[in-house]
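hey all, quick one before standup. I had two proteins in the batch that finished overnight and I want to keep them in one place so we stop losing track of which output belongs to which input. First protein below, input sequence then structure tokens straight from the run.
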Amino acid sequence: MVTNTVKKRLLDFTMETQLGHALCWAAVGTSCALFYDSNSSWTQCTLASASITPAPGDCCSDPENSPCDIPWFLQNKQDIGSFVTAGIADNFHKDFISFTQLMEQLDQGRLVAYLLELDIDGEIADMDKFSHFVVIAGYESTTTEQNVTVYDPYFGTSEMPYKEFVTNYKCHGGSVLGHKVTHSLVEYTFFSKPAKKS
């Protein structure tokens, strides 16, 4: 008789809802910073104010209509972005990682973030595709399945096979500003770690 061995891990993670249409990077950065340090003083608007260059000014007086509601980074080759500002960046990788590598990170209590390119059935701001950041903070592995728990600052939390996540996330009904997401693909994987104590 074959037993369906289960291995799973679910980190105690909460994803904030992004405050603006383009602030997924700030929501992910803030949520991950708070995961590693519940006393962190970072908020989406303060992290955005400190991360964007050149300095945009005050992002907190009206976050939904601020000059900070723009696409930005978690970490890039110039070493800027919300993960860098919050001190939790631990490198990044083009494309997605294997499920085994993902499990290793989560087993160490480390969150893994992803940048997805989403195709939409129409145009938003003269674009028919856009990029979006999410976090994986849980997995369940059996002899037949490899599932993950995805925390999305726009769509909310969902569970799905890892294979589906990396190649077709939210193709099954997600919509943005009235447009259906028709396809997606992981562009980058971002590793994180606790910030160093000063």
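OK second protein, same deal, sequence then tokens:
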Amino acid sequence: MPLIAPSLLSANFLNLEKDVEMINQSEADWFHVDVMDGRFVPNISFGFPVLNAVNKIAKKTLDVHLMIVEPEKYIAEFAKAGANYLSVHIEACNHLHRTIQMIHGEGMKAGVAINPHTPVHLLSDIIADIDLVCMMSVNPGFGGQKFIRHTLTKIAQLKTLINQCESKALIEIDGGVTLENAGEIIAAGADVLVAGNTVFSAANPTEMISKLKAI
């Protein structure tokens, strides 16, 4: 049974508290929070004020995905804001191992995110040290994009690498997850499904979360 992480990027920002409470009451496991800086990706989302506000009422794991340059500058502040998992992009870190150590040093679980064009084998030197791989299945920056099919092959490759290295890292798929493709994503080896538009554009978001959870 997969972990379901609704993405707050697709929530209603005019009524964010209502959407957070909906997730609290649903079968969802995590809150997925995308932080974008307009430099690493061509979009700007939200930062510490919103995360602090969400943390005050969220009753589930806060899974924070940093799509920013120089993420190491902000690790302590994200810990204070309530992040339980903190994922940084391999493409944005010159000293990835040190950054992972910093995340763990602040008491958080450490994740590494990879873009669609980034090969899985680049994780081989870090996979044993991390708790999560956030695999982008769309080009990062915007919600509502179509799932990139090659991701299924990459999931299988990553699962093999995790087993070979005896890593405990979870595989999280972020982008284009729908009720139609969730089954094959899980079958390929995914543990966590990030769902934004699929949840929040549904007529009944709580029911959609239940359907994803039941796959």
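Flagging for whoever picks this up: The chain has one domain: 3-213. The chain is about 35% helix and 20% strand.
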